[in-house]
Amino acid sequence: MPQLILTCDPDFNDLALDEFRRDSVYGVPVAELAPGVWLAECDDGFWGLAESWQAKPPIFVRHICPVDAVWPLTATQDDVSVLATLAESDFAAVLEAGLSYSVQTRVLDKTLPYRPFDLNIALSGTLTEATGAVVDVREPEQVLSVVCARLDEGALLRIAFHPSPTTNSGQQTGQLAFLGLSPTYLNLSDWAGGVRRFAREEGQISRAEFKLLEALEVFRIDLPPRGVALDLGAAPGGWTRVLRQKEQFVTAVDPAELDPRLADDNAVRHKGMTAEEYLADEPDEFDLIVNDMRMDARDSARLMVSYAGQLYRHGLALMTFKLPGTDRKRIIEHAFGILGQRYEVLGARQLFHNRSEITVALTGKR
Ligand SMILES: C[S@@+](CC[C@H](N)C(=O)[O-])C[C@H]1O[C@@H](n2cnc3c(N)ncnc32)[C@H](O)[C@@H]1O
Predict the structure, then answer these.
(1) Ligand 1 closest atom vs CA 293
(2) Strands 311-322 and 343-349, how do they pair?
(3) Residue 206, ligand 1, Cβ within 6 A
(4) Whole-model pTM over 0.70
(5) For the chain, does the N or the C end have fewer beta carbons within 10 angstroms?
(6) What is the CATH architecture assignment of 208-364?
(7) What's the CATH number of domain 3-194, 3.30.470.20, 3.30.2130.30, 3.30.240.20, 3.10.450.350?
């Protein structure tokens, strides 16, 4: 059966695998290669599943890539040149020479004596030489995904080895490389395993900033120049800082103090009160409402419904659903049900920077 690798937050394995089983044809997880990284197979294969996820993306599966070839590793430096040769023999003919590409390697078995970078360089070197295709690491149109991992015996029984004269195809255990080529957009994320890292900046206020940056990117949100934004649960002010960098005027609502570095910015108005209290203040209307409040996802959804009249018709909203503990599926469904009174859901994803939560993009119901 055709195989693929799917990646999620390991604390949400259950919900990610539910999505896989629900949306694939006879999907079966085969083995967990590393926490949250699953080798899986389904009748519709990577392409069928990926196409259906274009129409209705999953929330918890962060990244998928196909498995077109499996190769046993020797756990020596020789693997680098062997995989480079394999990349050329198996993928040069199918790589679209007119489109940019990138090799995205994950080395999940940390005992292997090479790093992702070593394989990325070696494999792209041979592929570009063979095809003339241009490497674009930031926005590749196609990706050769390489995952190096160790599998236990039980899991290995289901893997079809790449035929090779030098390989004992009966080999059943050990370290393996999984390779697959796909258009980047089908992988659900442009980044290997969905790991989207941002550089730490001087002046950064909180790690939560990465979460908002990632959400704006994933949901393709362009903020209007000199827009007005409402930040509910703003303290210590990371999201407010990001919104200021994007030239928004920000009303930051939180009973807690904002970072003093925001104090001198007269485009930031701090309302030192709860979101419930601010609503009673007859607030203005906004182009964007963001909500990262630490509260039950359903209560937070109810508050967003109360704030729906404060969003301009063209406006957008972004919120996190905090999902500690159990019963997460029911809580999510309930929160979506509440939001449905006043909002359309544009997207919902568990981002790389989300911890025990998901991020939801909304627009007001017409
Ligand atoms: C995770 S922090 C927000 C971090 C923020 N996004 C940042 O980037 O710095 C959650 C915040 O929600 C605030 N909060 C919780 N309940 C609230 C409410 N009812 N109204 C306003 N803020 C609330 C807390 O005071 C806390 O500062």
Answers:
(1) 12
(2) unpaired
(3) yes
(4) yes
(5) C
(6) 3-Layer(aba) Sandwich (3.40)
(7) 3.30.2130.30
